[in-house]
Specification:
Layout (H helix, E strand, L loop, with lengths): L1 E10 L2 E11 L4 E5 L6 H8 L7 E6 L2 E2 L5 H7 L1 E4 L11 H7 L8 H7 L1 H5 L10 H14 L4 E5 L7 H16 L3 E5 L3 H7 L2 E6 L2 E7 H5 L2 H7 L3
Parallel strand pairs: 3-8, 3-9, 6-7, 7-8
Antiparallel strand pairs: 1-2, 1-4, 4-5, 9-10
The chain binds adenosine-5'-triphosphate.
Length: 228
């Protein structure tokens, strides 16, 4: 479904990605792992068209994405839950959701069924929500675009344990529905349970890729490249 090969990109003159390579099959949950500053968010930004790739391939369902603007990439079926949530602060919950709506299985009522808390808060402004509610709204907003691939960048970061658990159960439910997911998250135990495969980045390069079982059995990879 998504193939990223030999991706290089950066900011100004400063190169952040040198050789990022991975793929995601339909229905798979894949994580991008690596310590801070290794290029996970930059990879996501390049896939979404928020940063122009310098070289390499990004192909989604047979369409080359490099050079396409973000709205075209979103329309092709990739939904992003960005780092830091970035909900529209001056719009209500409902307006935030409607703003990104595209026809498909995900509707306002399905998002409200997934996150009853958002239904209770539907007339509240984005800026007035708690961190957990903003995160739910960011996920709901991405689902309203009816993506075939959902990218979650640090969706559980900085949340209280109960809210975090709710976000994990929602991600598991989306996986059970067959949605393809690219996940960035520091909670290794949670991603080992949930994801099918993992891709480890080190200084802008893919240095390891494998299944949860393979990663669980590779303490040297965790010691060398991850937080744990
Ligand atoms: P984190 O977990 O901290 O978000 P990350 O793996 O997502 O880490 P990136 O944010 O992709 O890492 O950063 C990769 C490299 O690019 C780092 O060296 C970082 O300093 C640099 N970088 C990130 N954003 C910018 C920017 N806007 N301008 C210049 N350099 C940047």
């Amino acid at each position: 479904m998504l193939r990223v090969a030999r991706l290089a990109a950066g900011y100004g003159q400063s190169q952040a990605l040198f050789d990022v390579t991975f793929d995601i099959a339909a229905g798979e949950v894949v994580t991008l792992l690596g310590r801070n500053g290794m290029g996970k968010t930059t990879t996501v930004r390049a896939v979404m068209g928020l940063l122009r790739p310098w070289s390499g391939e990004i192909v989604f369902d047979g369409v080359a994405l490099a050079g396409l603007p973000p709205h075209r990439i979103a329309r092709l079926g990739i939904g992003l839950v960005p780092e830091g949530r970035q909900v529209f602060p001056t719009l209500t919950v409902e307006e935030n959701l409607i703003a990104t709506c595209r026809p498909g299985r995900w509707t306002l009522s399905r998002v409200f069924a997934l996150f009853p808390r958002l239904a209770e808060r539907r007339r509240n402004l984005g800026a007035r929500l708690s961190g957990g509610e903003q995160q739910m709204l960011a996920i709901g907003r991405a689902l309203m675009t009816n993506p075939r691939l959902l990218i979650l960048d640090e969706a559980t970061e900085g949340l209280a344990p109960l809210v975090r658990a709710e976000i994990w159960s929602v991600i598991a439910a989306l996986k059970a529905e067959g949605l393809s997911i690219l996940l960035i998250d520091k909670n290794l135990a949670a991603v080992l349970r949930l994801a099918d495969r993992h891709v480890v980045l080190e200084k802008g390069r893919t240095v390891w890729a494998g299944s949860s079982a393979a990663l669980a059995a590779a303490p040297e990879v965790r010691d060398a490249h991850l937080h744990v």
